[in-house]
Amino acid sequence: MQSHRAPAAAAPAPPPAPPRRSGELPPTHTSLICVALPALAVSAGQGQLTGRGLEGFCRAGRRLLSRCQVRVAGREPLAVQARMTGADRARFVGTLCVSPQAGPDPDIFVERVRHADGTERIILRSAAARPLRLPLEVSLGTDLAALGAIASGNAGPELPASVHDSGLRWSCPTGASSVSAEPPPADALAAAGLLRWEFELPPGGSASVELRVRLEGAAPLRAVGRAATSPLAPAVATGDDPRAAALLRTSVEDLQALLLRDYEHAADIHLAAGAPWRCGPAPAEALAAARMALPLGTRLAVGTLRTLARTQLGGTGPRAGLIPGPRRDAGAHLPPGCTGTEATLLFPVLLAEARRWGLPEAETEELLPAAERCLTWLRTTVGDGVYLCDPQPGGPARCETQAYAHRAALLGADLLDACGRPGGAGLRQWAGALRAAFEEEFWIDAPGGGRPAAARAPDGRPVPHFGSMAAHLLDTGLLGGGAHAPGLLDRVRTEQLARLFGNPAMDCGWGLRGLGAKETGHNPFGHRSGAVRVHETAVAVAGLAAAGYEEEANSLLHGTLAAAEAFGYRLPEMYAGEQRTEGGAPLPHPAACRPAATAAAAGILLLTTLAGLRPDAPARTVTLRPVRTAPLGEICLTGLRVAGAPFSVRVSRLGPAMVEEAADGLQLGV
Question: What is the pTM of this model?
Answer without folding.
Answer: 0.93
